[in-house]
């Protein structure tokens, strides 16, 4: 019998034997499904991506991970929601290891002196079903500036694997890196940085 056929048959059999939870649906985009409560950042599926123009040739991207923090949320009173998130600067990663090291160095983010980025919301406004503007203070490179994120609910519900109430959002904002003192090679390397956020939270209470 053909070895590739046997391998395929083994894979199908293995998948069929997985717990039913793996086949269950996860989150739903319906805002009515969001549970009120206090949530903690789920770091394994939370990323902050960044994109900037590199010498007028390419829009180059990287990301930060290993976030921590909390979200206090009541869908009926979205204006009372609170978001507090911290990112370790040393988690910065691109597709180039040499560049990763440079970004952590004193000419760029200076991770040894400024080890974290921190965002605390000050005002949240609903912009429609599952949409909100999240304004707050971003501290980066030792400088604090106001930033507003446009947020969109991606899904909420019970995670079929760990059985925890989970909610996930997408967020976007544009900042000036030189406003935070990260001005290396401006304007040759773009000053405007677009942030793309994938954020997951698990309900604690």
Automatic annotation (TrEMBL):
Keyword Signal attached: yes
Record SUPFAM superfamilies: YceI-like
Keyword Membrane tagged: no
Signal peptide: 1-23
Keyword set, alphabetical order: Signal
Record Pfam families: YceI
Record-annotated Lipid/polyisoprenoid-binding YceI-like domain positions: 38-202
Protein name: Polyisoprenoid-binding protein
């Amino acid at each position: 019998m053909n070895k590739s056929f046997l391998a395929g048959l083994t894979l199908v059999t293995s998948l069929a034997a997985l717990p039913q939870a793996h086949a269950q649906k996860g989150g739903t985009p319906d805002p009515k499904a969001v549970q009120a409560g206090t949530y903690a950042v789920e770091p394994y599926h939370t990323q902050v991506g960044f994109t900037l123009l590199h010498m007028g040739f390419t829009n180059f991207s990287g990301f930060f991970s290993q976030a921590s923090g909390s979200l206090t949320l009541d869908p009926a009173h979205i204006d009372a929601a609170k978001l507090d998130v911290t990112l370790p600067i040393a988690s910065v990663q691109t597709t180039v290891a040499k560049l990763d090291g440079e970004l952590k160095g004193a000419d760029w983010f200076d991770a040894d002196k400024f080890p974290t980025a921190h965002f605390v919301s000050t005002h949240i406004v609903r912009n429609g079903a599952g949409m909100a503007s999240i304004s707050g203070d971003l501290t980066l490179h030792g400088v604090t500036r106001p930033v507003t994120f446009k947020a969109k609910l991606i899904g909420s519900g019970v995670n079929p694997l760990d059985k925890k109430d989970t909610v996930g959002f997408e967020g976007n904002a544009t900042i000036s890196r030189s406003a935070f003192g990260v001005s290396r090679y401006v304007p040759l390397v773009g000053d405007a940085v677009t942030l793309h956020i994938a954020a997951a939270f698990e309900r604690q209470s």
